[in-house]
Design goal:
heterodimer; A: about 160 residues; mainly alpha; 6 helices; flat; B: about 240 residues; alpha/beta; Rossmann fold; 3-stranded antiparallel β-sheet; ribonucleoprotein (chain A); mS23_dom (chain A); Small ribosomal subunit protein mS23 (chain A)
Chain lengths: ~160, ~240
């Protein structure tokens, strides 16, 4: 069966079309994908010499980046954050919230807003570390585990039956 | 460089018009924009949760990837997931159609962390995978390499289009040579030009690869199931006669 291996010229579709049209490839040898390509042509022609478009990459910034920068300039010691844990807000998120809240009330200048917001964050973090005492240690983790195993419905005696 | 003028788009429009006038049952299937309902396999939120939007750093960006990119966040490329969703749906549709037409599908991946996952996926949907070193000529010199007339795949799915030294996988070039359509997950440091149906997105994270594997598996299974259904229907029809 005839084929064209010049992958740098045209596309797989154009090459196959030309082979079919010239009769080098018989109509019954038409590849399986050919009709699919006609029905669902790719958005961009898959050709080797398709030029790269001239466009600028947009820089992504948010309004609160300014606040974030101010906070990070003052507080260098932020601690580790678990990115998968979305239950708690991070320290910076708390600060942004507090900052916006304080600013919306007006009456304070920039320095004071930051000071007050930082105090709020500090209080909240203290509160959180107070409430978040998890049971660690051998005895407590063992009792936790037994509680878990009591809850499960698997009957260990008949596990092989 | 200006591309050489090869009039494929116009020809494509002609063929498309022919297809729209055709009323055979096969043409009716092709006229349906989403015959296998692949659009409901995932949502943009799923893509986001699987970390598909993360690209590489700005320095390694391939200029040809620019149209798929949303922007750069402090030096990291972020993909436009709306575009990714569009391209991924088209790729899934093609996959389902190829499976429906009983084509052979070959999955590629050169990232050793995800290799087993891809092999398992291919096994589960009854297709083939190649996740090891690509010996040149597997496609282009197949009849000699395998000592027999060899049927090449009808569709190649690349879960990453780079090999382990970050050059383009030779399979991409060889598929184009042998006129095999390709679907490829292209990250921000890849070249999408030779891939027939590129899908812009993260090709490194196991979470992302797991999502792609799952989606392509489901698309293939839907295609095969439909084929079985239709075969059964025609069989009962011929028996009735």
């Amino acid at each position: 069966m005839a084929s064209s291996r010049l992958e740098k010229i045209g596309t797989i579709f154009s090459r196959t079309t030309m082979l079919l049209r010239s009769g080098a490839m018989k109509l019954e040898d038409k590849p399986l994908w050919y009709d699919l390509y006609v029905a669902f042509p790719p958005q961009l022609e898959p050709r080797y010499d398709r030029p790269a478009p001239k466009m600028e990459i947009k820089q992504i910034f948010y309004e609160e980046d300014v606040i974030r920068a101010k906070y990070h300039k003052r507080v260098k010691n932020l601690g580790a954050v678990n990115l998968q844990d979305t239950n708690y807000q991070t320290q910076t998120q708390l600060f942004i919230e507090a900052y916006k809240h304080v600013k919306s009330q007006g009456a304070l200048d920039e320095e004071q807003i930051i000071e007050v917001a930082q105090d709020i964050v500090r209080d909240k973090m203290k509160e959180r570390s107070g409430s978040q005492k998890e049971p660690v240690g051998l005895v407590s983790s063992f009792t936790e585990a037994t509680k878990e195993s009591n809850r499960s419905t698997v009957d260990i005696k008949n596990i092989f039956e | 460089m200006v591309p050489t003028p090869i009039p494929t788009r116009e020809r494509l429009d002609e063929f498309k018009a022919d297809l729209l006038n055709d009323t055979s049952p096969e043409a009716e299937i092709l006229k349906n924009p989403d015959f296998f309902n692949v659009h409901n396999l995932f949502t943009v939120r799923d893509l986001f949760n699987a970390r598909v939007h993360f690209g590489h750093k700005e320095g390694s960006l391939d200029d040809r990837m620019k149209p798929f990119i949303f922007g750069s966040r402090l030096g990291h490329i972020i993909f436009d997931l709306d575009k990714t969703a569009f391209y991924l749906r088209q790729a899934l549709n093609i996959t389902a159609h190829i499976a429906f037409r009983e084509g052979v599908i070959l999955m590629f991946n050169r990232n050793s962390q995800n290799a087993h996952l891809v092999e398992k996926t291919a096994f589960e949907c009854g297709e083939y995978s190649h996740t090891r070193f690509w010996r040149g000529g597997i496609f282009t010199n197949a009849n000699v390499q395998f000592n027999a007339v060899t049927r090449l795949p009808d569709l190649c799915i690349f879960f990453n289009t780079l090999n382990n030294v970050l050059a383009q996988h030779s399979g991409v070039k060889d598929s184009a040579k042998m006129a095999i359509p390709t679907i490829g997950i292209v990250d921000s440091n890849c070249n999408p030009n030779l891939i027939t149906y590129p899908v812009p997105g993260n090709d490194d994270s196991p979470a992302a690869i797991e999502l792609y594997c799952n989606l392509f598996k489901q698309a293939i299974l839907r295609g095969k199931e439909k084929r079985k259904e239709m075969d059964a229907a025609t069989k009962t029809q011929s028996e009735d006669r």
